[in-house]
Amino acid sequence: MGRPIVRGRENLAAPPALDSALLLIAVTGVSFSGPLIAATVAPALAIAFWRNAMGAGVTALVVGVRHRAEFRELDRRSVGIAVAAGVALAAHFATWVPSVTMTTVASATALVSTQAIFVALIARWRGTDLPRLAWIGIVIATVGTTLITGADLGISGRALAGDVLAVIGGLCAAIYVTIGSRARERMTTASYTSICYTVCALVLLVVCLVGGVSLHGFSANAWTKIVLVTVAAQLLGHSLINVVLRSTSPTVVSLAILLETPGAGIVAYVWLHQRPPWTAIPGLVLLFAGLVVVARSRGEDAPVEAVE
Questions:
Q1: Are residues 286 and 142 in contact, defined by beta-carbon separation less than 8 angstroms?
Q2: Which residue has the higher pLDDT, 86 or 240?
Q3: What whole-number distance in Å separates Cα of residue 30 and Cα of residue 221?
Q4: pLDDT digit string (tens) for 169-208?
């Protein structure tokens, strides 16, 4: 059953109990992504490669069992769009995952959430009119981003570089989500993610090989955390969000995903004893508030997906 629409407007009522439970699990899963990456003693690009390679293996298995006929009938255009999305996703992981190891988890997670701003700006560039409220949210979020990076500038150049990488990761994520929304108009989520994750993993593999990044020799503890981040964010988070979107408003889902920002910060504070500088707190608050305004104003127009 599709989500109910009331007089042409999006229904923003609370999702059903099951969807609420699934959203809670999904947001919890992606909230552990940043802290797990920060706590893993392995090269950031290696973590990015392995989580996508493992995710590709699982989705390929699902396609092989349930979607073989649909996969064989995919046309070149559909495959091409999924491949392009995979390249954009690789660029996202190649920038955001290292950022988590360079700045605080709270800052990196908040700044990569500027994805919502870039999605809106890409939509505007493609000819979609943005409501006035969206522009207000973008301005608020931009001020917040400036305050966060300014605070980290006072700490170290490495933290500032991590902030910049996180914002670039948000841009790449927006490109990935925008392309992906087109791909899933033509193919199932399983087939799309199978191609996308595989291409992403292959691109990251090439980057690691060219850059001389070690892909093995990690401790059992590191491998355990790589598996956990794959299950928590790549499989549970992404998969359950796609399930919930079938019956719940995209705006409600977008707002729920934004809870990853404070969620990751809390996990990092409790588990890793890591907190952003006090001077960055106003920026984090403003950025979160601006993103909420953008997500609330755009409604059904914006594609939804968590990619952390």
A1: no
A2: 86
A3: 20
A4: 999 999 998 888 877 777 877 788 889 999 999 999 999 9
Show contacts of 69-75: CB within 8 Å, 24+ apart.
Answer: 70/187, 70/188, 70/191, 71/191, 71/194, 74/187, 74/191, 75/186
How sure is the predictor about 68, in pLDDT bands with cuts at 50, 70 and 90?
confident
- Alpha-carbon span 67 to 117, nearest angstrom: 34
Q: Tell me the pLDDT tens digit for each residue of 111-139.
A: 999 998 998 999 899 888 889 999 999 99
Angstrom distance (rounded) from CA 45 to CA 231: 18
Q: How many helices (H) and strands (E) does the chain have?
A: 15, 2
The tokens of 125 are what? 């560039």
Write out the DSSP string of 191-222: HHHHHHHHHHHHHHHHHHHHHT---S---HHH
- 69, amino acid identity: A
Q: Distance between CA 237 and CA 33 in Å, rounded?
A: 10
Asked whether 114 and 173 are in contact (CB, 8 A), the reply is: no
DSSP at 275: -
Are 81 and 193 spatial neighbours (Cβ–Cβ below 8 Å)? Answer: no
Q: Cα separation of 242 and 180, whole Å?
A: 12
Q: What is the pLDDT of residue 253?
A: 79
Fill in the amino acid letter for 92.
H
Neighbours of 35 (CB within 10 A): 26
Which tens digit of pLDDT belongs to each residue from 206-236?
Answer: 999 999 999 999 999 999 999 999 999 888 8
Query: What is the distance between the alpha carbons of residues 160 and 114, in angstroms, rounded to a whole number?
Result: 16
Tell me the mean pLDDT in the region 246-259.
78
The whole-angstrom separation of Cα 114 and Cα 173 is 9
Q: Are 21 and 250 in contact (CB under 8 A)?
A: no
In this structure, the chain runs to a length of: 308
HSE-CB of 81 using CA atoms within 13 angstroms? 17
